[in-house]
Automatic annotation (TrEMBL):
Organism, scientific name: Peromyscus maniculatus bairdii
Reactions this protein catalyses: ATP + H2O = ADP + phosphate + H(+)
Keywords of the record: ATP-binding, Endoplasmic reticulum, Glycoprotein, Hydrolase, Membrane, Nucleotide-binding, Nucleus, Signal
Protein name (Swiss-Prot/TrEMBL): Torsin
GO biological-process terms attached to the record: endoplasmic reticulum organization; nuclear membrane organization; protein localization to nucleus
Length: 335
């Protein structure tokens, strides 16, 4: 869909508009919609059209302040992830000619917000979020469960990505449970992540790839624990305290999925993004957020009770939640 010029009222355009809408809507809303347009008069065709159907709109700038607000309000205890994701996405979307697709690798303990963040990112790029036609989520254990079928999965996945990117250059691909993904499958997507101008006539440079895994979670936890034991604030942890540990740690971990896939030694991952283990106070914040999301008033007694039911580690100090905020929602159902 090109961004054609101002809508002037030419007969041809009118017919085109009506035809497009008639396919998707019943006559009454067509009437209302056409009425509304004739009132406003000169909305551009694509603006108007994209109000009713989802458009790819790769030229649409990312609203960085909206993304910032979303992350700061909704994501708890992840100052590093917030900072890096914001920087990575705004930089990438403001770049008219990226040299390669954006690749983010999110790492961390269970229930610390990796899927949650991918959802926030998806929603900021496309209003329909994970349900958008331009956002594709792959879950290793769901979509690629059998190791002996790797060859088949490779072909399918390549065909899929090629088709999706030719339909929308700024497609988003999220690979969940990377640590359970067979390295052969990552090899299949490697060509798309590289610095090629085009692969078989298609440019992948505007696409976004997000990888999620627990790999490196133990190292991130160790560093966070070291800070805590040294009496230093969690917010003092800087990316440089974690980034080297993370990529080496992930690389050396056979179960990381990234292992031996060549993604790391070829520097195809743009950002390693650590998710810190969540503390008791963050779990409480998750409970409050969940209560508000359910439209209930926040009851501090229940907040404390739910948080107290969670289990914490290490054994002696009990600082970090075993499952992060993951079981908060189901626990809340019991109260
Ligand atoms: N840091 C956080 N801030 C706010 N809510 C969070 C956070 N972490 C987790 N949650 C809540 O807990 C739920 C589960 O988290 P999520 O699915 O993102 O975990 P995950 O990091 O993907 O874990 P896993 O590695 O086990 O898949 C989210 O839907 C969200 O409601
Ligand atoms: C960007 O988001 C902010 C916060 O949600 C909003 O106030 C603002 O109007 C948005 N800007 C644009 C250009 O859409
Ligand atoms: C793109 O992805 C969707 C799933 O989100 C899939 O159903 C579809 O077949 C893909 N398109 C092409 C052309 O491969
Ligand atoms: Mg997850």
């Amino acid at each position: 869909m090109g961004r054609s010029g101002a809508f002037g009222g030419s007969v041809v355009l009118w017919a085109l508009l009506a035809a497009h809408v008639a396919m998707a809507f019943e006559p009454v809303s067509v009437g209302i919609a056409i009425g509304a347009v004739s009132l406003t008069g000169y909305l551009s065709y694509s603006d108007w059209y994209c109000r009713f159907t989802e458009c790819c709109r790769e030229d649409r700038p990312l609203n960085a302040s909206a993304l910032k607000l979303d992350l700061e309000e909704k994501l708890f205890g992840q100052h590093l992830a917030t900072e890096v994701i914001l920087k990575a996405l705004t930089g990438f979307r403001n770049n008219k000619n990226p040299k390669k697709p954006l690749t983010l690798s999110l790492h961390g303990w269970a229930g610390t917000g990796k899927n949650f963040v991918s959802q926030i990112v998806a929603e900021n790029l496309y209003p329909k979020g994970l349900k958008s036609n331009f956002v594709h989520l792959f879950v290793s254990t769901l979509h690629f469960p059998h190791e002996q079928k790797t060859k088949l999965y490779q072909d399918q996945l390549q065909k899929w990505i090629r088709g999706n990117v030719s339909a929308c250059a700024s497609s988003v691909f999220i690979f969940d449970e990377m640590d359970k993904l067979h390295p052969g499958i990552i090899d299949a997507i490697k060509p798309f992540l590289d610095y090629y101008e085009q692969v078989d006539g298609i440019s992948y440079r505007k696409a976004i790839f997000i990888f999620l895994s627990n790999a490196g979670g133990d190292l991130i936890t160790k560093t966070t624990l070291d800070f805590w034991r040294a009496g230093r604030k969690r917010e003092e942890i800087q990316l440089k305290d974690l980034e080297p540990v993370l990529s080496v740690g992930v690389f050396n971990n056979k179960h990381s999925g990234l292992w031996h896939s060549g993604l790391i030694d070829k520097n195809l991952i743009d950002y390693f993004i650590p998710f810190l283990p969540l503390e008791y106070r963050h779990v409480k914040m998750c409970v409050r957020a969940e209560m508000r999301a359910r439209g209930a008033a926040v009851d501090e007694d229940i907040v404390t009770r739910v948080a107290d039911e969670m289990t914490f580690f290490p054994k002696d100090e009990k600082i970090f939640s075993d499952k992060g905020c993951k079981t908060v929602q189901s626990r809340l159902d019991f109260h």
